[in-house]
Design a protein that fits this description.
The complex is a heterodimer. The radius of gyration of chain A is 14 Å and the shape is globular. In chain A, helix 2 crosses helix 3. Chain A has 6 helices and 2 strands. Chain B is of the alpha/beta class. Chain B folds into 2 domains: 134 residues, Aspartate Aminotransferase, domain 1; 255 residues, Type I PLP-dependent aspartate aminotransferase-like (Major domain) (Aspartate Aminotransferase, domain 2, 3-Layer(aba) Sandwich). The longest helix of chain B is centred in the first third of the chain and has 21 residues. The chains are: A mainly alpha, B alpha/beta. The interface between A and B is medium-sized, with 14 and 15 residues.
């Protein structure tokens, strides 16, 4: 798994959108595929424009996630989201301002709280898992 | 003479650039852009003649009421209805169909009755009937189309019988572009004793409509797809049927006489327009339909046919481009799949290139699944699209193909 700081640095070196997209595709291709047994409605994130699955893991008070999609760029975006949210406590997850991180990556249009386009549903689900853990 | 380059100047939004590229808008089947005359008309009404409709006794109220009712006359003319009493203003086609489901179907359908729809229906012409069937113990039957998306007369006839009380079909599929022979369908349905509802959302944009010629009992379309504003739609219903129907919602402006205990209702269409309607939007819709009629529905259709032919020719040059919906009688709606590229991935790249398409299930999930997909990309034409738009689309798809 890539480190988010490293991703921010890598993205900052890419000037045009073509290079950023190519990098997202590479990240998507590198993301380990989710075990087929998880590709069910139970793990599906609704509200996305492609099929997206998200599976939480809970170890020693920290949350991690596995994810997958049938769209390769979406997989790349998932890789970024997982880098942001994995190995975090519920408290830490609550504090993350994901929109700002995506803006910093130059991918603001793919994930911003105000636009409510697809991928925000995945973040909502991560936050939901974090909240359930706190209770 | 229909000059598309001149026509485009009527649509201010087409002149803006997207990501430094020309705005190539190929999503008119979802919602169409608005001509200046509509924007100006609505703005003028707000600036000079606005008040609540049907209520006042002063100049502004008279003027807005006159504008609103003039818009109804334009709709009547646009669809060839017999009387403006047959034109009900709604929020959109979805509400028009829900109105028929709640008011007509719940009153008139009983256990074991059947509702017949096609496989190519939008959710708006599917879910209201599912609910009627659940509430009344009726059966929803779905007649098949072929794998190219073409209408199969024998499949329709096979499913039509004396229990069929309603046939509800689209005039033109929003996914496949297939144009259904609605006049033929209405004739057969009536012979079987069924009423006929046409979802004309796409059809109304691309060809002229005459409800008396089709002889449908109900017809629905949305204003925002016919170059008018959002928030306004139309339900056409034959006079004698609308007169027999109870109100859909109740409140102001739809009553004849009210006491604390009892109310008698106004005649249609007022009976079905409870509360303050989307008045200025209705006026805007009237202006949009006037604009379309001025350009000429036949001219618009001819222009779109030319675009469609060019689209077929140019997309055949794209490697692994598969068109979904290849019926002979097809309008300017093109759903497609390119190789193994997910439509979402494709749309990301097209978006950056300034090309607007829609992806997903297009509010017709069973149909997209039936064609063998979970998601499809769709490019659709409006009267303002050009061959240059298609060239830009093809170039963007080729660029996306190289990406993935």
């Amino acid at each position: 798994m890539e480190d988010i700081e490293e991703l921010i640095e890598n993205f900052s070196m890419l000037e045009d959108w073509e290079d950023k997209y190519q990098y997202l595709i590479d990240l998507g291709e590198k993301l380990p595929p989710l075990d087929e047994k998880y590709k069910t409605d139970a793990w599906k994130v609704s509200g996305c424009q492609s099929q997206v699955w998200l599976v939480p893991e809970h170890k020693g008070g920290l949350l991690s996630f596995k994810g997958d999609s049938d769209a390769i760029m979406v997989k790349g975006i998932i890789a970024v989201i997982l880098a942001i949210y994995s190995n975090k406590s519920a408290q830490e997850i609550k504090k993350i301002e994901v929109g700002k991180i995506f803006a910093k990556l130059g991918l603001g249009e793919h994930l911003s709280p105000s636009r409510r386009n697809g991928m925000m549903s995945m973040v909502d689900k991560i936050r939901f898992y974090a909240e359930s853990l706190e209770k | 003479m229909f000059d598309v380059y001149k026509v485009r100047k009527d649509f201010p939004v087409l002149a803006r650039s997207i990501n430094g590229k020309p705005n190539v808008y190929l999503d008119s089947a979802a919602s169409a852009q608005k001509p200046k005359c509509v924007i100006n008309k609505m703005s003028r009404v707000y600036k000079t003649a606005y008040a609540n409709v049907h209520r006042g006794t002063y100049a502004l109220a008279d003027e807005i009421t006159s504008e609103y009712e003039k818009a109804r006359e334009v709709v009547k003319k646009f669809i060839g209805a017999d009387s403006e009493k047959e034109i009900v203003f709604t929020r959109n086609a979805t509400e028009s169909i829900n109105l028929v489901a709640s008011s007509w179907a719940l009153e008139n359908l009983h256990q074991c009755d059947e509702i017949l729809i096609s496989e190519a229906e939008h959710h708006a012409n599917l879910i209201p009937w599912q609910i009627v069937c659940q509430k009344k113990g009726c059966r929803l039957k779905v007649f098949k189309i072929d794998d190219n998306g073409a209408y199969l007369p024998q499949e329709f006839i096979k499913n039509l019988n004396e229990r069929t009380k309603l046939v509800a079909v689209t005039g033109m599929s929003n996914v496949l572009g297939t144009v259904f022979p609605i006049k033929e369908i209405a004739l057969a349905a009536h012979q079987a004793g069924a009423k006929v509802l046409i979802d004309a959302c796409q059809l109304a944009v691309h060809s002229s409509i005459n409800v008396q010629d089709i002889d449908c009992d109900f017809l629905a379309f949305s204003g925002h797809k016919t170059y008018g504003p959002t928030g306004i739609g139309v339900l056409y219903g034959k006079s004698e049927i609308l007169e027999s129907m109870p109100p859909y919602q109740t409140g102001g402006d739809m009553v004849d006489k009210v006491t604390y205990q009892k109310t008698t209702y106004a005649e249609p269409p007022a009976r079905f327009e409870a509360g303050t309607p989307a008045t200025v939007e209705a006026v805007g819709l009237g202006e949009a339909l006037r604009y379309m009629m001025k350009l000429g529905l036949d001219n618009i259709a001819a222009h779109e046919r030319e675009l469609s032919a060019y689209m077929l020719q140019k997309t055949s040059e794209i490697k692994d481009f598969k068109l979904v919906g290849t019926a002979t009688n097809k309008g300017g709606v093109f759903s497609f799949q390119v190789g193994n590229i997910h439509p979402q991935d494709l749309a990301y790249v097209l978006g950056k290139e300034g090309v607007a398409i829609r992806i997903g299930h297009h509010c017709a999930e069973p149909l997209v699944n039936r064609m063998g997909y979970t998601s499809l990309a769709r490019a659709s034409f409006g009267l303002y699209n050009t061959k240059e738009d298609i060239d830009a689309f093809v170039a963007a798809v080729k660029k996306a193909s190289a990406f993935f």
